[in-house]
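User: tokens in, sequence out, please.
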């Protein structure tokens, strides 16, 4: 750079002050802010979903204590549902509702389903009990559980369990894949594509 260019540069830069280096604080503030926002968003989603799951026993269809129940969304293949019905999918995750009050059971059910999906579980068992002597009518918790599961989008299908897993007092529940599992499956299925 010549003397003329240097003096022109210094003239243009007169009065310019260097920026303070605070990028580290900004990044960590953003991370904390994002985590807090995620927590608030999850709490809001949970509150909205729970509001859709009624606690009024007169607004749900009553089930019989020994009734075998089933539910399947469109898109679930018959062979997959048949295997679910027979208890053919291993389940490492159980949700026990049968000793809880309806309000507690509703929250536990929804929170545990979300947790199970985050852990990558696809099949769980929900224990609601038969409740032959519950009031205002028999099988109250069973009826609530059936109604709630039908309304939770993450639930693809359910069927009363085999006797070895609780029979009419429990349900095999199939969950939709979590977003992370969808990405992993997509990556696994595309490995080797266009590779010679």
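Assistant: Sequence out:
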């Amino acid at each position: 750079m010549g003397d003329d260019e240097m003096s022109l540069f210094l003239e243009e830069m007169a009065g310019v002050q260097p920026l303070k280096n605070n990028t580290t604080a900004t990044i960590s503030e953003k991370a904390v802010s994002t985590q807090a926002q995620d927590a608030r968003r999850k709490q809001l989603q949970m509150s909205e979903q729970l509001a859709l799951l009624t606690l009024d026993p007169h607004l749900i269809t009553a089930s019989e204590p020994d009734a075998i129940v089933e539910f399947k969304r469109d898109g679930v293949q018959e062979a997959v549902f048949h295997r679910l019905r027979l208890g053919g999918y291993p389940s490492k995750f159980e949700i026990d509702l049968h000793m809880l009050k309806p309000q507690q059971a509703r929250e536990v059910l929804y929170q545990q389903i979300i947790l199970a999906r985050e852990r990558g579980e696809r099949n769980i068992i929900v224990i609601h009990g038969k409740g032959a002597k519950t009031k205002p009518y028999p099988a109250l918790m069973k009826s609530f559980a059936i109604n709630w599961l039908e309304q939770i989008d993450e639930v693809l299908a359910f069927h009363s369990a085999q006797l070895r897993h609780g029979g009419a007092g429990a349900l095999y529940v199939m969950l939709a894949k979590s977003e992370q599992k969808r990405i992993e499956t997509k990556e696994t299925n595309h490995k080797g594509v266009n590779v010679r």
